[in-house]
Amino acid sequence: MPKKARPAGNGKEEGPVPCKRVKVEVADGLSTLNFDSPHDLFESLISPVKIDTFFKEFWEQKPLLIQRDDPALATYYQSLFRLTDLKSLCSRGMYYGRDVNVCRCVNGKKKVLNKDGKAHFLQLRKDFDQKRATIQFHQPQRFKDELWRIQEKLECYFGSLVGSNVYITPAGSQGLPPHYDDVEVFILQLEGEKHWRLYHPTVPLAREYSVEAEDRIGRPTHEFTLKPGDLLYFPRGTIHQADTPPGLAHSTHVTISTYQNNSWGDFLLDTISGLVFDAAKEDVALRAGIPRQLLLQAESTTVATRRLSGFLRMLAERLEGTKELLSSDMKKDFIMHRLPPYHVGDGTEPTIPGGELPRLDSTVSLQFRDHIILTVGPDQDQSDEAQEKMIYIYHSLKNKRDTHMMGSEEETESHGLRFPLSHMEALKQIWNTSAISVKDLKLTTDEEKESLVLSLWTECLIQVV
């Protein structure tokens, strides 16, 4: 129900308006998520709101609250992460700062209560009970299979990294001060209840995290309480704070987030260097030196500004006429750091080729399509002057789940293949058809055809059908 308006100091009624919400009542049947495809998963996650409606009216625009009266879904949400899960997780070796934070909002500021080194469940529980501290668990999909399953499908759906954090807050307490994030946020309420207040963004679609002083953010635009099975979405830049109501059990929610550094501005930065590199090979004007002492000038000169404007117009015209795959670093960064395909078993990745070896008379089909990218870039084995373009195929089948979204300082290894540009048509045939005969691939020789499919099969990217 909408919050009642509260009398203000001047006697006039004022108060937060209710969030756009959908009330869902399920009479019977098991209502959990649909994992048949990435589209089906997202559709079931925001049900009963239709996907077209979500992206037309809410995505990057305004919050959406979905309140559900669905015991089966509430039970399923509760299974994703519980306070009691911390005991078994701590026994596997969790560390303060890296895996878990302990904090509390005191006088509008975040107070971190972390200890040093390894986190022990009894100490976490003591701080939780006695200091009324919030326990924040980083990237639980590393350990909780069902969150891995959900986030892997969402990464396929959005084409962007999807991280998560769990927040467990005792009754009558608040973990974080008002702030906004640089990610699109989906809140799933798992245990207990959480009271939320949302505020108008000071920086719409923000590109960085920032804490906001409560005296600067005004009154809430939305105020409500989440219960198990409920879902809340809000765009990046939305100022928010949340607390567990007093007198109730603790609250547990998981924040699933995506679209960090995934804007048109980021994509432009990613593509512009390749455009300039290619254009400079063909246009001597781009290879001409800048004026003497230009770098010593305190301000840009009119000549330099006019020259750059002309180059940008030329690049825009060049871009209009190209069909080449544009993104290089963003594509590769996504595929290198995303979750591997979800699978049931002992935790090993599905990277051992299986089934029949492909031959010239075989019919093959692409598998793990959502985990593969195909891009064109310079041959990294040649010098800058002699670089020819090559086709690079990267995949995430061998990615490590236990380091997902952890910002590992170790250099992440990319997995994939490299082919000459002459293989593009044959690769597009494999990509764009459900199944194709090897002998029909558009390559000059039978040896090239067999070599191509064998390379893809060895990386588990195709199967014989």
Main structural class: alpha+beta
Strand content: 15-25%
Strand order of the largest sheet: 3-4-14-10-16-8-7-5-6
What's the β-strand tally? 22
**H/I helix tally:** 12
Low-confidence stretches: 1-18, 24-31
Average pLDDT: 89
Distance between the termini: 55 Å
Oligomer: single chain
The rough form would be described as globular
Percent of residues in helices: 25-40%
Main beta-sheet annotation: 9 strands, mixed
What's the Cα radius of gyration?
A: 26 Å
List the helices and strands and how they pair.
Layout: E1 6-7, E2 13-14, E3 21-25, H1 38-45, H2 51-57, E4 64-69, H3 71-80, H4 85-90, E5 100-106, E6 109-112, H5 121-130, E7 134-138, H6 145-158, E8 162-169, E9 179-180, E10 184-191, E11 194-199, E12 210-211, E13 222-226, E14 231-234, E15 239-243, E16 251-258, H7 264-282, H8 284-287, H9 302-320, H10 329-337, E17 363-366, E18 372-378, E19 389-395, E20 415-420, H11 424-432, E21 436-437, H12 446-458, E22 462-464
Parallel strand pairs: 3-4
Antiparallel strand pairs: 1-2, 4-14, 5-6, 5-7, 7-8, 8-16, 9-12, 10-14, 10-16, 11-13, 11-15, 17-21, 17-22, 18-19, 19-20
Overall description:
With 465 residues, the chain is of the alpha+beta class. It is 28% helix and 23% strand. It has twelve helices and 22 strands. The protein has helices at residues 38-45, 51-57, 71-80, 85-90, 121-130, 145-158, 264-282, 284-287, 302-320, 329-337, 424-432, 446-458; strands at 6-7, 13-14, 21-25, 64-69, 100-106, 109-112, 134-138, 162-169, 179-180, 184-191, 194-199, 210-211, 222-226, 231-234, 239-243, 251-258, 363-366, 372-378, 389-395, 415-420, 436-437, 462-464. The protein has a nine-stranded mixed sheet. The chain has a three-stranded antiparallel sheet with strand order 13-11-15, with no helix packed on it. α1 crosses α6. The longest helix has 19 residues, at 264-282. 31% of the residues are buried. The model is unreliable at 1-18 and 24-31 (pLDDT under 50).
